[in-house]
Amino acid sequence: MPSNYRSFRHSVPWLMLLLEAVFIVGFYFVGSGDEVIRSSISYADFQDVNHMMIFGFGFFLTFLRRYGFSSTGFNLLIIALGVQCSILTEGLLPFQHQSEDKDVLKTITKAAVSMTAVVISTGAVLGKANPVQLILMTIVEIMFFHTSRWINNTFLMVQDGISMMHVLLFGAYFGLAVSSRFSEPSPRSEKKASTPKSDLLAMLGTLFLWVFWPSFNSVLVTADRNKAVYNTYFALAASAVIAFVLSVLTTKDGKLRMAHIHSAVLAGGVAVGYVAASIDYPWIAMILGLLAGVITILGSYCLERCWNPVLKIHDSAGIHFTFGLPSVLGALAHVVIFVIKSWNHGPRLGYFVMFHIGAFCVTISVALITGFITGLILNLKLFQTIPVSKYFDDLFYWEFPHLAVGF
Amino acid sequence: MPSNYRSFRHSVPWLMLLLEAVFIVGFYFVGSGDEVIRSSISYADFQDVNHMMIFGFGFFLTFLRRYGFSSTGFNLLIIALGVQCSILTEGLLPFQHQSEDKDVLKTITKAAVSMTAVVISTGAVLGKANPVQLILMTIVEIMFFHTSRWINNTFLMVQDGISMMHVLLFGAYFGLAVSSRFSEPSPRSEKKASTPKSDLLAMLGTLFLWVFWPSFNSVLVTADRNKAVYNTYFALAASAVIAFVLSVLTTKDGKLRMAHIHSAVLAGGVAVGYVAASIDYPWIAMILGLLAGVITILGSYCLERCWNPVLKIHDSAGIHFTFGLPSVLGALAHVVIFVIKSWNHGPRLGYFVMFHIGAFCVTISVALITGFITGLILNLKLFQTIPVSKYFDDLFYWEFPHLAVGF
Amino acid sequence: MPSNYRSFRHSVPWLMLLLEAVFIVGFYFVGSGDEVIRSSISYADFQDVNHMMIFGFGFFLTFLRRYGFSSTGFNLLIIALGVQCSILTEGLLPFQHQSEDKDVLKTITKAAVSMTAVVISTGAVLGKANPVQLILMTIVEIMFFHTSRWINNTFLMVQDGISMMHVLLFGAYFGLAVSSRFSEPSPRSEKKASTPKSDLLAMLGTLFLWVFWPSFNSVLVTADRNKAVYNTYFALAASAVIAFVLSVLTTKDGKLRMAHIHSAVLAGGVAVGYVAASIDYPWIAMILGLLAGVITILGSYCLERCWNPVLKIHDSAGIHFTFGLPSVLGALAHVVIFVIKSWNHGPRLGYFVMFHIGAFCVTISVALITGFITGLILNLKLFQTIPVSKYFDDLFYWEFPHLAVGF
Question: How far apart, in Å, do the first and last CA atoms of chain C sit?
């Protein structure tokens, strides 16, 4: 097996080189010209999203005791590849307006936001997929996500900002579908566990995400950005409170569980994504944040006991309840709030509701179907699935000269 | 005792739920309308303060060897609750102008700045107060702080920006007064100590605070913001240098002590807070930074040997010399610099000095008195004070599945 | 030896105090007046550079197993001293325009950018130089760097922005020259190695640098800042990909080496520094990033095996291949791209090429010569070189009360 793997490992870099060459050639044909127009997005906004992707998710996923190098390292690799791929895909799809094409900062910010889908999906297969599988998943997912957005924008007349917010929904369900095709890890594996140190680093990542979530929800909003910030902040605050409340209530002895805090403090930000700029009163955002926190913690309880064992899905980072369920709640809230706000608009209301529910269904169906197919393909013998005994192990990918010296 | 505590633990979440419900109802009545005016504060400024609170203080307080989860986790919980409480309290106090009420970003930034008081106070009882005590302290302190500000603004005609800067002074002395009512930890307790890893994480937090302190000092300044940034930076640089100087001079063998560095590098930023925008020459800021560093390190020496044992105060994170003493120096410097600058203004000068010294005395008296009363109330049997043997211990609040597997 | 060292240690603080006093007096004479003009640099831009210096480099250098306190602590000390020194030096050199002198935020940002040279140089002597040596090196290097810039600006008519970008080149070769005069550490020293935890913290620092590099390359650019950001981002992305590719190809068993990732992911940002704002098509930046990554990893292979043992240079943090070689590539690319872009401009082209190659040679010569002399002086008996057995050891500088308690 090792010698087998060694030859496989030596084929990985050629895949990456090939992709990078394709990207460079692609940019040669697609790439922006030398005229630069004033950007509608400030550099600071782009930086916030970039931070969130690189540190936030990088460290959010370091909770596994022996997978810190891979979590942060592969996260960087995937984002570096995925952002280039995303810009090319958007450039090739026919729905891009000419003028926007020149706004380089907006292009790159949208690419970074799209990458959230991939980063979330990798959470579901964290420690189970090898780099080749991760890279292929990145390329395939980013293409399907843009296709799903294109369907939403073109046929269902969903605004670009809203169709972008489907990114979390898409990422979570695509990841779950891919994950369902991977072998389950041994239930007694010690490597699945965290250490206090790795939990603290994951807390650092979670706090990064918590702080930057208002940026994420407001970066592509054109009007009322301050309102989006304000509402997201309150939703996050409410879900942070409810995370502590429910963690105490659902554990034995009334102690707090770090895994609950990691996932539920973010739920409010996820749920409020669709409606951050259209909620008029902060108490609505707070209630949404509360509900999102409740759904996340109860979801983690139900899914891990009832749902996942039955469907044989192993969701390493718990992305289903961290990002999936709050997104569903958010999409629902979006429709409900719109209905309440424009109750007397009659027929337009009906269309809106239909189109939005349609967009939701399209996104989730595309995610599940393409994710399932991707999962099937990635588990072909060709891609040398990792043996279950080597799951969650940095030693399998990284040199550890430290071992020779002693820790 | 444990079974006793278990039932107590199960009552904690209901307190939080109740508070969150009160906040939601409060926002229903107070909350901002749907008109949003242009904010005088940019989103990036708000983010800097938000960062500083969540990461900066979160990791600044992780130096205890077994209290990392609680330091970062409870910090998040307290800020999530406190910001909501602060916005409500400000909305209810009669001194709010109508127009400012609509500036949502300014409202939330001011709430975050006010929370510095609470976060600093928690440093004094770090590891000694249970979550119920921390939450009650948060609510009570934020209310008293706004009351003290209201007295300063209304009766002593102190500018809002200056009365906001009293936040560090208030936080430090309120925290000390509360702390004086808690039992002292056993002097031989190993858990009071830090590990090299926890010291390094606390250094991460300190560096965050160091970098963001110019934002903190300039965020509520309306004119000459660049000057406030510049002066704060030089004061911080000077106190970083003096921290290393005095740490070598005051320790045995001329080695550096990490605890000195953690506290003294920030002293300059604290001291220059009141006058950052009104100092005309950077060398004045540098001298102020130097003096602040000296006061902090000598203060840590004197307070820990002479003052605290006599008054039986145990100050976990050393907030008295880190934030308290440099604030006092800053308030003094404020008066001195004003007197020098407007020496020939006659009677107006006398009023100014009187009012500013009055505001200082009001703030510190309100902090000490209300802090002492809060400390007394929090140590009622009702709130189940933690036994001294369980001080500074994450195990008391958090599940540690890691223990089963081995670290 | 220890008693000898103790007396030496007690002389260190007086040096720092003296320097700080000189700076304060210097600012008294040089310091900016009370008129403040609108800054051409926003506060957020300054903050990004400040972050990058304090966290980015602070944690980038924490990879040594027992040198975390010193890496982050001395980095802060050096920056605090160096920024003040840099502002004074710039103020005293005759090439400063009067109007710019008042732009306090630009002054401080340029000082922070200049400090990159020193921070990179300390990487070469990391763990080998004592604080006195580090401080003297800081002062001397910042003066020589500004002198070299002054020569470039005045005699070779290089633009200020370009001569500033020589900072990485200067820092790397100055550091190497200084390092050549220090004794080599014992090849079997365990302390030279990293631990998985320290490597992960260094990864945190690397990610900070990766995220902030577009800010660094664009902060002093006046026109086309968005283009500088865009190109730097693509160069960084390409070098992140190539880092993973070559790390797999050059190690035994096709595993990844963390040290490769740390250095090569940044290579693209370094190389594209000179031309970030003048590249019109992102694919050029990507190719440059690819080449930089290749040069860094192949450089690390060749330098560590062939070059360094022959020249008896020990480069602790590998700054030669991380910052030195990509800078050389960048300077070369700058000339090549300019030649291609203005092929039909005839004589002006010849001057430009000559001047730019001249500036490159001046910078690198000044760096090597002054670095060598500085290295010689710093190794005088007066400065109490650390014995080789005490290299890379926090215990030599910091109190470790932790040891009494057990880790």
Answer: 28
Comparing CA positions, the residue from B165, B124, B136 lying closest to residue B148 is B165
Q: Mutate which of C37, C108, C207, C215 to test chain B, going by most B C-beta atoms within 10 A?
A: C108
The torsion of the CA quartet A247, A251, A254, A255, rounded to 10 degrees, works out to -70
Mean pLDDT of chain B: 88
- How far apart CA A258 and CA A253 sit, in angstroms, is 15
The two tokens of residue B197 are 């890893």
Element (H, E) at B249: helix B225-250
Give residue-wise pLDDT tens across range A128-182.
999 999 999 999 999 999 999 999 988 888 888 888 999 999 999 999 999 999 9
Closest CA–CA distance from residue A377 to any residue of chain B (Å): 35
CB contact under 8 A, C211 and A401: no
What is the complex's ipTM, to 2 decimals?
0.93
Burial class (CB in 10 A: 0-12, 13-18, 19+), B43: buried
Q: In chain B, what residues touch A257 (CB-CB under 8 Å)?
A: 398-399
| Contact assessment for residue B265 and residue B232, using Cβ atoms and an 8 Å cutoff | no
Q: List the single best residue of B100, B142, B198, B405 to mutate versus A (max A Cβ within 10 A).
A: B405
Q: Select from 3.40.1440.10, 1.10.3430.10, 1.10.10.10, 2.30.130.40 the CATH code of C2-31+44-398.
A: 1.10.3430.10
| Residue in this structure with the two tokens 């699945």, named with its chain if needed | A192
The C-alpha angle with vertex A18 and arms to A12 and A22, in degrees rounded to 5, equals 150
Query: Which of residues C129 and B99 earns the better pLDDT score?
Result: C129
Does B22 score more than 60 pLDDT?
yes
Distance of CA B366 to the CA centre of its chain: 16
B211 with C397: Cβ contact below 8 A: no
Nearest to B226 among C20, C36, C79 (CB): C36
Q: Among candidates C215, C401, A38, A358, which has minimal Cα distance to B259? A: C401
Residue C49, CA atoms < 13 Å, CB-side half-sphere: 25
The domain ranges of chain C are 2-31+44-398
Query: Closest by alpha carbon to B137, among B107, B169, B182?
Result: B182
Q: What is the pLDDT of residues B357-396, one digit of tens each?
A: 999 999 999 999 999 999 999 998 888 788 888 899 898 8
pLDDT tens digits, A97-137: 554 556 788 889 999 999 999 999 999 999 999 999 999 99
Residues in chain B with CB shorter than 8 Å from the CB of A288 are: none
pLDDT greater than 50 at residue C1: no
What is the band of B95 on the pLDDT scale with cuts at 50, 70, 90? low
Per the listing, tokens 């043996």 go with: A387
Domain B2-30+42-393 has CATH 1.10.260.40: no
Is A295:A243 a contact under the CB 8 Å cutoff? Answer: no
Chain A: residue whose CA lies nearest to C261: A73
Whether residue B80 and residue A283 make contact (CB cut-off 8 A), yes or no, is no
Residue of B nearest to A214 (CA): B47
**Mean pLDDT on A81-104:** 75
Give me the residue label for tokens 């057990």. C406
Contact between chains at C36 and B196 (C-beta distance less than 8 A):
no
Candidates B36, B46, B58; nearest CB to A224: B36
Cβ-based contacts of A56 with chain B (< 8 Å): none
Which CATH code is given to the segment(s) A9-31+44-396?
A: 1.10.3430.10
Which whole number is the average pLDDT over C389-400? 89
Q: Which pLDDT belongs to residue B1?
A: 42
Question: Quick check: A44 and B39 CB within 8 A?
Answer: no
What is the reported pTM?
0.94
With beta carbons under 8 A apart, name residues in chain B contacting C9. Answer: 248, 253-255
Which of the two residues, B4 and C307, has the higher pLDDT score? Answer: C307
B contacts of C201 (beta carbons < 8 Å): 200
